Amino acid sequence: MKTRRDVFQAIADPTRRAILFLIAAQAMTPNAIAEEFHTSRQAISKHIQILTECELVRQEQKGREIYYHVNVSKMEVFDKWVAQFKGIIETQFRQLDQVLLTIKKNKP
Amino acid sequence: MNNNLLFDFIVDKATQTVTINREFDAVLSLVWDAFTTQEILDQWWAPQPWASKTRSMDFKVGGRRVYAMVSPEGQEHWSVQQYTSISPKTNFKMLNAFADKDENLQLPGSNWDLTFAEQKGTTTVHISIKNDSLERMEQMIAMGFKEGFTMTLNYLEQLLAKHKL
After folding, report:
1. CB contact, 8 Å: A72 with chain B?
2. How far is B26 from chain A (nearest CA, A)?
3. According to CATH, what is the number of the domain B7-162?
4. Between chains, do A95 and B43 touch, taking CB under 8 Å as contact?
5. How far apart, in whole angstroms, are the C-alpha atoms of residue A32 and residue A35?
6. A17's torsion region: left (phi>0), alpha (psi -120 to 50) or beta?
7. Which among A23, A72, B44, B59 could disulfide-bond with A95, CB atoms 3.0 to 4.6 Å apart, if both were Cys?
8. Hey, are the CB atoms on A82 and B163 less than 8 Å from each other?
């Protein structure tokens, strides 16, 4: 398997989802984010780095501090997946509707 | 034909479960057969232009259905459904997992729970799909967007369940 970092890999990790959840409410500094977790600063920093690489979060410099925001446009990728999944199931069930109709018609 | 059939599609983020409710304009026994017999399943299980090809099916507890989703180019993606519980014409549960063509399962899979109920000739099927394996999701990513399409029912669930926090 080719290794790559994409949005799906990014959200596969529960800590990264929690980080997204936190900063969805408000932009936060790396220190403030790390304080919310019982894990090392380095570990949180690595998670933020992955989220940044996948463009799920973006940085903003404010004075001497860096703030992290959720990149809303990137999150829309997931909405598209949901829509696609839903669409496929709808297709299958419409096919089943037709199959059921055919069976009923052919019944004596 | 009744075009006002219920179709719910609910993603529960907390439990990472996808719930689907769908009505069918047919009596319960017919809908039950459509989900539990090989001949009917292969007529609708794959979204066109893909085809569902069932190699074997033994619908009993402990039995399995071995099937392939066949792409328009003829490429086969094998899966196995293993039946874990059956209450005739009411409910059945199964583990759905990828497999190679020799039926070696790629676990973990997703757990499906299907409940059937009829009211005045309309049958409602309630489906709950739970899948919480990171490996499966990574596999899907590796296969890519286009191929993932075929596999959707098997393993997009986790992604969907987690797509929003």
Report:
1. no
2. 7
3. 3.30.530.20
4. yes
5. 5
6. alpha
7. B44
8. yes
